[in-house]
Amino acid sequence: MREPAALPGWTRANVIAHVGCAADAYLWLLAVARTGVEPGPRPSADALARAVEDGAARPAAELVAGLRARLGRLLEDAESMPEDRWDTLVTALAGWRHPAWYTLHRCWRELETHHLDLDLGYRTSDWPARYVSWALDDTLAALAAREFPVGRVEAVDLGRSWTVSATGPDLTGEGHALLGWLSGRTPAAQLTAAQLTVTQLITAQPAEARPLPGPPTWPLPPAPGWH
Fold this sequence. Notes:
- By secondary structure, the protein is an alpha+beta fold.
- Helices cover about 45% and strands about 10% of the residues.
- It has 7 helices and 6 strands; from the N terminus they run αααββααβββααβ.
- It has helices at about 10-35, 45-55, 60-80, 100-115, 130-145, 175-180, 190-195; strands spanning about 90, 95-100, 150-155, 160-165, 170-175, 195-200.
- The strands form 2 sheets. Strands 4-3-5-6 form a 4-stranded mixed β-sheet.
- α1 (about 10-35) packs parallel to α3 (about 60-80), α1 (about 10-35) runs antiparallel to α4 and α5 packs across α6 (about 175-180).
- The longest helix is centred in the N-terminal third of the chain and has 24 residues, at about 10-35.
- The termini are far apart.
- Residues about 190-195 and about 200-210 have low confidence and may be disordered.
């Protein structure tokens, strides 16, 4: 638990504590959707950061037991949610809104991404194809709405492709490699050499190719946004 995680400045304990705090946030959102009333004061971003640091200092067994208990409660709350409440709009801490059902997708992304961040042998190639396909749909739609300068993106193993913008490089590769780069978990140089074929669009000067753009901070608010 005290060894470094793949995230700069964090130990594995920090990652586990962060996932636990995220589960608490999702429980809060499901409670709002179920009752229409906030279940209590909502922690600020600073308070959550302190909670992660405090949680990371706990003994390993206590940390793991706490995470399992929170995720267990989240599963119970999801299973008992009235069907007509899933479309209720709730508000993420960052301010954007989404239906309550999208909370489960956010949790799915949290678990898969931070499983990787633990740096215990779980790799992007271990991500389930169903998760990769959904996360690429979600991420590339958000990038298209922001006119991110990437053209056609093709996940050869999934048999799927997306058009993000009319300009920029076309990207072809394994779906997990594309998602790893877009989520900031796999360096572009490593992907280009190992798993990702980048076809650069040539500018008016044939000797120059447009560079691969750096993806924005991930994850992005979903697009189209809900209001």
